[in-house]
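User: Could you check the structure of this?
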Amino acid sequence: MLLSIKDLRFHYPGDSKVVLDIPQWCLSAGEQVFLHGPSGAGKSTFLKLLAGLLVPSGGSITMLGQPLQALRSGQRDKWRARHIGFVFQQFNLVPYLSGRDNIRLAAHFGGKGDVDAAATALLTSLGLDEKLHRKPAAELSIGQQQRVAIARALINQPELLIVDEPTSALDAKNRDLFMALLGEQLAENNTALIFVSHDLSLANGISRVESLQDINQAGRVN
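Assistant: Sure, the predicted structure tokens are below.
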């Protein structure tokens, strides 16, 4: 089992309202899950907990046998860099760094050494011409930025890839291209996926589709 959740509860400091109450949830190695729910359902909070950016108020999140809540803040940062890739909604690339340097930065935080050859191979496999590898991210098109974002998330060969609403700002062509590129890379690396979106049309090809509201007991009316 790659990821296991048991009796997870979370509320923000100073607020007694429970945002998440998940008795049990798990994810196997290489498994792909599409997680959906309306705005305000707690999707972003859930992802931050899985990534170790937030700590549960109760219960446990265990990944690769490691209880994340047992790690100190700096340890969680290192764990996340080494084992979890993240593709953000707005990609969050460092605008003045080249695509290759954005990837180098992620590799540095993951404790990797020289990744130039791996970064070049990954970007090329994603269809980004080599002459664009050294171009500042701010000067790349949206489609080119999304390739860099995928490569950055995968450079440390993470066991888990988390993708958070990455297509909301994309037109239909770039959205479909993003999904195709993502699927190819997941298959090649046997990486598990948690794909979060409100757009159910993006769930095509992902075998496990769940609503956060179905697994989260917080706020339910009996």
